[in-house]
Write a structure and sequence with these properties.
Blueprint: H1 2-32, H2 37-44, H3 48-60, E1 65-71, E2 78-83, H4 91-99
Antiparallel strand pairs: 1-2
Helix pairs in contact: 1-3, 2-3
Amino acid sequence: MNQSFNTSLLNSNSKDKTFKNQLQTIFEYLKENIATASMVSEATGVPQKNITRYKRDLELAGRLWEVEKKLCKKTGFRAWYITTNPEHKPKHLINQLNLF
Protein backbone atom coordinates (compact mmCIF):
# COMPACT_ATOMS: atom_id res chain seq x y z
CA MET A 1 0.00 0.00 0.00
CA ASN A 2 2.84 2.37 0.82
CA GLN A 3 4.34 1.85 -2.65
CA SER A 4 0.98 2.75 -4.25
CA PHE A 5 0.85 5.98 -2.23
CA ASN A 6 4.38 6.93 -3.29
CA THR A 7 3.57 6.22 -6.95
CA SER A 8 0.46 8.38 -6.76
CA LEU A 9 2.46 11.16 -5.11
CA LEU A 10 5.08 10.98 -7.84
CA ASN A 11 2.39 11.16 -10.52
CA SER A 12 0.91 14.20 -8.80
CA ASN A 13 4.26 15.97 -8.77
CA SER A 14 4.88 14.92 -12.36
CA LYS A 15 1.58 16.48 -13.44
CA ASP A 16 2.45 19.69 -11.59
CA LYS A 17 5.88 19.83 -13.26
CA THR A 18 4.31 19.17 -16.67
CA PHE A 19 1.80 21.98 -16.07
CA LYS A 20 4.54 24.43 -15.08
CA ASN A 21 6.79 23.39 -17.97
CA GLN A 22 4.01 23.69 -20.53
CA LEU A 23 2.83 27.02 -19.14
CA GLN A 24 6.38 28.40 -19.18
CA THR A 25 6.92 27.06 -22.71
CA ILE A 26 3.87 28.77 -24.18
CA PHE A 27 4.46 31.96 -22.18
CA GLU A 28 8.03 32.24 -23.51
CA TYR A 29 6.96 31.35 -27.06
CA LEU A 30 4.26 34.02 -27.03
CA LYS A 31 6.69 36.67 -25.76
CA GLU A 32 8.48 36.35 -29.11
CA ASN A 33 5.54 35.40 -31.37
CA ILE A 34 1.95 36.33 -32.04
CA ALA A 35 0.05 33.16 -32.91
CA THR A 36 -3.18 31.20 -32.58
CA ALA A 37 -3.50 28.32 -30.13
CA SER A 38 -3.19 25.87 -33.04
CA MET A 39 0.00 27.54 -34.20
CA VAL A 40 1.42 27.55 -30.65
CA SER A 41 0.58 23.87 -30.30
CA GLU A 42 2.36 23.01 -33.53
CA ALA A 43 5.44 25.08 -32.61
CA THR A 44 5.80 23.93 -29.00
CA GLY A 45 4.30 20.45 -28.93
CA VAL A 46 1.93 21.45 -26.11
CA PRO A 47 -1.55 19.98 -26.79
CA GLN A 48 -4.05 22.61 -27.93
CA LYS A 49 -6.55 21.71 -25.19
CA ASN A 50 -3.87 22.57 -22.62
CA ILE A 51 -3.06 25.84 -24.37
CA THR A 52 -6.71 26.85 -24.07
CA ARG A 53 -6.56 26.34 -20.30
CA TYR A 54 -3.26 28.22 -19.96
CA LYS A 55 -4.60 31.01 -22.18
CA ARG A 56 -7.51 31.54 -19.80
CA ASP A 57 -5.24 31.52 -16.75
CA LEU A 58 -2.78 33.96 -18.31
CA GLU A 59 -5.61 36.28 -19.46
CA LEU A 60 -7.06 36.37 -15.95
CA ALA A 61 -3.60 37.18 -14.59
CA GLY A 62 -3.28 40.05 -17.09
CA ARG A 63 -0.30 38.40 -18.82
CA LEU A 64 -1.82 37.41 -22.20
CA TRP A 65 -3.76 39.44 -24.74
CA GLU A 66 -5.81 38.73 -27.83
CA VAL A 67 -4.36 40.92 -30.57
CA GLU A 68 -6.64 40.33 -33.54
CA LYS A 69 -9.04 37.78 -34.93
CA LYS A 70 -8.20 36.59 -38.42
CA LEU A 71 -7.62 33.41 -40.41
CA CYS A 72 -5.24 31.01 -38.69
CA LYS A 73 -2.25 30.12 -40.84
CA LYS A 74 -2.48 26.50 -39.67
CA THR A 75 -6.22 25.73 -39.74
CA GLY A 76 -7.62 28.32 -42.14
CA PHE A 77 -10.38 29.18 -39.66
CA ARG A 78 -10.88 32.53 -37.96
CA ALA A 79 -9.15 32.53 -34.59
CA TRP A 80 -7.63 34.91 -32.10
CA TYR A 81 -3.93 35.68 -32.42
CA ILE A 82 -2.51 35.92 -28.90
CA THR A 83 0.67 37.20 -27.25
CA THR A 84 2.28 37.60 -23.85
CA ASN A 85 4.50 40.45 -25.03
CA PRO A 86 3.32 43.68 -23.36
CA GLU A 87 4.58 45.68 -26.35
CA HIS A 88 1.75 44.15 -28.40
CA LYS A 89 -0.98 44.76 -25.82
CA PRO A 90 -4.02 46.23 -27.62
CA LYS A 91 -4.13 50.01 -27.22
CA HIS A 92 -7.68 50.03 -25.84
CA LEU A 93 -6.46 47.97 -22.86
CA ILE A 94 -3.59 50.37 -22.19
CA ASN A 95 -6.00 53.33 -22.22
CA GLN A 96 -8.43 51.53 -19.88
CA LEU A 97 -5.67 50.90 -17.35
CA ASN A 98 -4.65 54.55 -17.45
CA LEU A 99 -8.18 55.63 -16.51
CA PHE A 100 -7.90 53.97 -13.11
